[in-house]
C-alpha cells in the first residue's frame, strides 16, 4: 500500500504469490473453449472476432502477492470484471490456469470451490448488494449463517466488524436508512466478517460522491494496515489507483497491457494507452528521488533524501536550498543526487533526462 507520500511498501516483491493467472482466456460465444484449445491457447484478436466470439479476457498472465493491493484498471468493456470473476471462478475461464496458493482452481471439486469462496475469499460490489429486508447486524451476520455458525457466534463476529468499520450504533438500521457511504461500510463489514484471505473489490466506491469516496479510500487503507489482506481492486479512476495500489494492471480489449507500480507506469508507460491514463497525474506525488536522480558531479549538497522519497515531499526544501540533495541509501551512502532544476522541470511538466534511472 502507498504511504502518505505515495511510496510503495518495501518487500512486496518478496512475498509469496497468493493467486496467479496463467494464460487465462474468457471468450463468450459458441464453442469458445474448443476454439482456444484447438489453437493451443494462442489466438489473435482478429481470429477471435472472425470466429464470432467476444474476447473478454485474452492470454492474461499475472501474479498477485500475499498482502498486496493489486489494482485492475482499464476502460469500460476492457475485461476487468470478467477477469476478476474468473479469479474466483464465478465465471468459468475458457482456457488457462488460475492458481490459488499454487493449486489449480479449475481442477478442484465444486464442493471445495464453494468452501474456498465461503471461507477464504471475500467480495464487495459497486451496488453494495445488501439485503433490503435485513438490518445492518443481520446483513453482516448473513454469510456466517451460510457457513453454519450459530446465532451467538455470528452476532459476536458481526459486532466486531461493525466496530471495525465505524458503524456502532447503526446495528438495527435497515439499508434504506443509511447513506451510500454507510451502505458500503456494511458491504465491507459483511465481506470481512468471514475473515477472507483474498478480497475482491469491484469498483466499490464508484457510486459514491467524491468526498465520501476519498473517505472510503482512507478507510480501506486504515483497514489494510490492520488486516494485511490480499486485495484485488477494480477501478476506472487512476487517482484512486495510485492512492491505494502496490501495483496496477492496465487492461485493454481483454489483454493486460502493463503491470507495474504507479511510479513505473508514470515513468515508463508501455504504450500510448497507458500514458493516456497517467496523463493528468500529479507526477511529483508519484515519482521518487530514485527516478529523478543523476550521478553526483561533486557539487555541494543542500540536504539528503531517501531513494523512495516522493518529489512532492521535498520539492519546496530543495528549491529554497538552491543546491542538489544527495540521495542516500540505508547505510547513509550517497547513490546519486537530485538537482533543484530537475525538480522545477518536473513540477513544470518538462520531461527531464534521468541520468541515474
Ligand atoms: N455474459 C456475457 N456475454 C457476452 N459478452 C460478455 C458477457 N459478459 C461480458 N461480456 C463482454 O466482455 C467484455 C468485457 O466485459 P467486462 O464487463 O469484463 O468489462 P469491464 O472492463 O469490467 O467493463 P466495465 O468497466 O464497464 O464494468 C465486454 O465486451 C462485454 O460486453
How would you describe this protein?
The model is unreliable at 1-10 and 353-357 (pLDDT under 50). A hairpin with a 5-residue loop joins β12 and β13 (334-338). The chain folds into 2 domains: 12-278, Rossmann fold (3-Layer(aba) Sandwich); 283-347, CBS domain Like, CATH 3.90.1280.20. The strands form 3 sheets. A 6-stranded mixed β-sheet has the order 6-7-8-3-9-10, with helices on both faces. The chain contains 15 helices and 13 strands. With 357 residues, the protein is of the alpha/beta class. The structure holds adenosine-5'-triphosphate (ATP). Adenosine-5'-triphosphate (ATP) binds at residues 28, 54, 56, 74, 76-82. Its EC number is 7.6.2.9. Residues 36-278 form the ABC transporter domain. Belongs to the ABC transporter superfamily.
